[in-house]
């Protein structure tokens, strides 16, 4: 029986959420198309990861090597390519994450398989796969098809699918050895650095007032800071503000910043790229103010205002008498 | 330190209403302005900073039409020494094809480091850089937010998830995909770009590269492009700013974050 590979993403002894999301979708595909679901684990001290995986896949293939202690795209690619030759999976799923961005493209060259990245959905009609993805920062959708090939590589957007429930499977755990030697390491891991720590912890705030590109100029942040204080909120922001060094990284909401869970998230001039929106899925109520009526943020907000934030801020301050 | 940067000119789509073209494969680009891919602004800046510190050369490469030379002139104005435009003519290339063409073009050029953006603003694929590294057999790293070149290796910082970064040492030659925010791109005047026009841009064609049709055949095809489906979305609040402010304050009170 043909198999579907899910490459298990883990870090510092914990399985990443994207893994369970991929297993959820892959499990659904396997059931309807009579495929075996195989979770592939590359790592070193991975014993504690295996049981939760065997509850979510038909087979858990484990490759333990000391060189796999830290993720290394070069080595992982070599190892996965060997497993792909042996198992001939119909498709291989990876996360559209820092791992996937480094691993999937080189694996595509190594295997010669077609690759679609950042997939939001996988559609199978008449045994043919098409992937749903976005272009232009989410402003348009595309359906992508693949050249006839022995296998397909896909990276899946975090949050695109719900996580799978445990207990659906009692999978077999298979410890593998590599047939061919690994190449020499060209990257040496030094350390992890926490770039998100700072004076305030936006993940703990109840009321976040968050600003994005719509702020326009750095000088305008003075007005924003006064406003946030008058409102009794906590200041956060989207990526472009940190990229421009207008605010330190610990203010940043999103996949590379912090995931937040305020009661209210007031988004000012934030367009709502998926990396940002992924960080506010735990927010109670989202109120978005943006000049662009087509801004993706309005698709996730409960309340929306199409306006220049600098028209709304003075009106709010006047009502507050501040 | 000889550095090659790969850059792309893309339509500017922020706060722009997009329409789908007649073939239903892409957006209608007729009325759109074009700019350098935002990631590539950081790419050329990083390359020129490294050159300014350690000496060497910077070569900027793009695949595109004569109009796309605008971004090569920008790179030259910022500090690139040489620019190459490869004209692919009417050949449609997917990311794999682009990476193959770049690899063939770069083979035989001296370099210690290749920098590309993490992804392009238009197709949001994030493939070309790392595919190029694999074609050339180079060490590589993705989503790089810091580079310090030390003799035969580079100390790099890569952005992971949840505010975590990874610091590592990478052997040179290597390819890095650069993340936005790694530096503060310098301002370059229109005059500067005009002056740079005189530096000259090397033009190459696909026929110069000795590639087979198999190398260039697309691995993936866009079947259909469409605008996001209408969803229920947000409850919209409209009216005068004073009314909107009142409504926002009412919601804040209702949700218990303001008295």
Commentary on this structure:
- The complex is a heterodimer of chains A (322) and B (259).
- Chain A is built from nine helices and 18 strands.
- With 322 residues, chain A is of the alpha/beta class.
- Chain A folds into two domains: 3-176, 3-Layer(aba) Sandwich (Rossmann fold); 202-320, Rossmann fold, CATH 3.40.50.
- In chain A, strand 2 and strand 3 (14-15) form a beta hairpin.
- The model of chain A has no long low-confidence stretch (mean pLDDT 95).
- Chain B has 259 residues and is α/β, with parallel strands linked by helices.
- Chain B has a nine-stranded mixed β-sheet, sandwiched between helices. Chain B has a two-stranded antiparallel sheet with strand order 2-3.
- The interface between A and B is large, with 105 and 85 residues.
- Strand 10 (140-146) of chain A pairs antiparallel with strand 12 (220-226) of chain B, so a sheet runs across the interface.
In short:
The complex is a heterodimer of chains A (322) and B (259). With 322 residues, chain A is an alpha/beta fold.
**Sequence of strands across the biggest β-sheet of chain A:** 7-11-6-1-4-5-12
Overall pLDDT of chain A, averaged?
95
Radius of gyration of chain A: 22 Å
CATH topology of the largest domain in chain A: Rossmann fold
Number of domains of chain A: 2
Radius of gyration of chain B: 22 Å
Strand content of chain A: 25-35%
- Give the N-terminus to C-terminus distance of chain A in angstroms: 69 Å
Largest sheet of chain B: 9 strands, mixed
What is the CATH superfamily of the largest domain in chain A? HUPs
- Shape estimate of chain B: globular
- Count of individual beta strands of chain A: 18
N to C succession of SSEs of chain A: EEEHEHEHEHEEEEEEEEHEHEHEHEH
| N/C terminus separation of chain B | 61 Å
Mean pLDDT of chain B: 95
Could you say which overall geometry of chain A the principal axes of the C-alpha atoms support? elongated
Low-confidence regions of chain B: none
As residue ranges, the low-confidence spans of chain A are none
